[in-house]
Amino acid sequence: MTETTSVTSIAGRHALRRRRDRIRRWSWGVPLWILALVFLLPFAWMISTSLKPDVQAFAIPMQWVPRDPHWGNYTEVLFGENSILIPFGNSVCVAALRVLGELTTATLAGYAFAKLRFPGRGAVFVGYLATSLIPAQLLLVPRFVYFQKLSLYDTLWALILPGMFTVLGTFLMRQYFVSQPEEFAEAARLDGASEIQIFSRIYLPNAMPMISALAILTFVWSWNDYETPLVFLSTPENFTLPMGLTSFTDENGAMAAGLSMAASVISIVPILLVFLIFQRRFVAAMTESALK
């Protein structure tokens, strides 16, 4: 009788705990779902507007699901007079080279600041970090003059080269390499491995989650950059996608809502794809950084 009562009591406690856990999940889950829906509303409006003629874009009351979807907006955006295909290709080229350059310089510099011993390492790193205190807008004019003298003005290289070196990228990789055990390098040196081999075969593979996170951040920064192309590009053939989105206007010079939203929908597809591809490593890097 006592054993039966004990088993019943344990089962009751487990059921109560499960009920409390369920209530706790719902108490957190429902507000988060509501918040997520609120953040998704602008994207839903963008997709809905991209399938409407301009005269219906701002109609009241709003029609979230168009009765007669106007797919011509996408055809016009892709193959019309102001096609975004060339700006789209320019953005892909700039983003890809910036990501490649950023990952190369950030991993090498981060490893050097974290694992190599050289005179003035701390002072150099602090000085490098201090450059991030300078507002980026203050550097636009000096860079403009500098690129003009180098004949790089109005070329994609004026966007690519500065984006290959960032303080944040070096800082993130340095912090990651600092957290890695020094015993790995010591054991490899005893086996006769060079510093390049230690970096490329031991530490670099372990840093793939952080490298993926940095790649996503760099790609998004490059893809959404509007200010830099506005200053350094003047030829429409060299425009990147953010500048190409500004070319859709109606006969009065106002924004053509349907065309602009269709182009905007297309512009967010690469960001979604990059995030979906690297999502697991990005989450792993953020989780590992939080735990450390």
Question: Could you explain the architecture of this structure?
Answer:
The protein has 292 residues and is mainly alpha-helical. The chain has two domains: 2-50; 82-291, MetI-like fold. It has 14 helices and no strands. Helix 1 packs antiparallel against helix 14 (257-291). The two termini are 51 Å apart. 24% of the residues are buried. The model has no long low-confidence stretch (mean pLDDT 83).
Attribute tags:
flat, 14 helices, membrane, 292 residues, MetI-like fold, mainly alpha, transmembrane helix
When the domains are counted, the total is 2
Structural class: mainly alpha
Query: How many strands in all?
Result: 0
Q: State the separation between the terminal residues, measured CA to CA.
A: 51 Å
Reading off the top of the CATH hierarchy, the class of the largest domain is best stated as Mainly Alpha
Indicate the CATH topology of the largest domain: MetI-like fold
Oligomer: single chain
Strand percentage, roughly? under 5%
> What would you say the CATH architecture of the largest domain is?
Orthogonal Bundle
Strand and helix order: HHHHHHHHHHHHHH
